[in-house]
Amino acid sequence: MSVSRRQIAAVAAAVPVALAAGGTAHAGRSRTLYLAGDSTAAQKYADAAPETGWGMALPFFLSDRLRVANHAVNGRSSKSFADEGRLEAILGEIRAGDLLVVQFAHNDEKKEDPARYTEPWTTYQAYLRRYVDGARARGARPVLATPVERRRFDAAGTALPSHGEYPAAMRALAAEEGVALLDVQTLSLALWQRLGPEATKAYFNWTPTEQDNTHFNPPGAIEAARLVARELLRTGVLERRDVRRLDEEIPGDRITWPAPS
User: Are 229 and 218 in contact (CB under 8 A)?
Assistant: First the structure.
């Protein structure tokens, strides 16, 4: 007999509050924050430097009580990540009290690629529900993060949104499902606006041979991770003791790129 999404939600709702919030379930051990996402968050290696995913910088802002397991992968959408079995790999490891932070949209937008494309108000939301339901069924807490914005400006220097209806669809799903929402899209767009067209180049992967307005270099990844950490605190997903250095400057040379495995 198949189990409906509502039945899964009912099971999750029956988990004791202390367990779902990461209380007694992880007493005596550190929790793990699992990250499912795309290239803007993913671990990069020496052959890609200076490109940096914000997931690489997130541990700078979290206490030692919280481990980051960065499963984000270049080029994936909410659909392809799940279809390739990557969501199931996370769900096979995640434990009660852990967190699953989900950021997708950059590749969901690619209509020319049926392996990745999702429509914001139908298939995108349907795939995101798989992440939400899967985490809840295991006593973990799902967290949705709207996609970090690209570097796009009009002729007047106004920062432009680039993700269409996807952030709105994620916000609506979060409200419907009672899931914590990190509104990284809104905050990053505001940050790029404050910095302006020229200053933002120092945050993206602009090199002598490449002008990349989507992926970060170390300073950009650090600032995007700072936005994520602040949202984790603001939304109550994390307590004050779980975060650190929110207002400190983190030198870009703290980022390291391991050799490809």
Answer: no
Question: Residue 170: which residues within 8 A CB-CB, separation 6 or more?
Answer: 105, 124, 125, 128, 144, 146, 181
The answer to whether the peptide bond before residue 167 is cis (omega within 30 degrees of 0) is no
pTM above 0.85, yes or no: yes
- Block residue for tokens 């004791």: 16
CA 5, distance to chain mean position in Å, is: 23
| Orientation angle between helical segments 5-13 and 125-137, nearest 10 degrees | 40
Instruction: Report d(CA 86, CA 38) in Å as an integer.
Output: 12
Q: What is the pLDDT of residues 175-207, one digit of tens each?
A: 999 999 999 999 999 999 999 999 999 999 998
Largest CA distance in the chain: 58
Q: Give whole-number Cα distances, 248 to 61, 62, 86, 199, in Å.
A: 9, 13, 34, 20
CA distance 27 to 118: 39
Give CA angle at 70 (69, 74), nearest 5°. Answer: 160
Helical axes 184-199 vs 218-234, angle rounded to 10°: 150
Task: Find the helix packing angle between 166-177 and 125-137, rounded to 10°.
Answer: 40
Q: DSSP state, 77?
A: -
d(CA 75, CA 63): 29
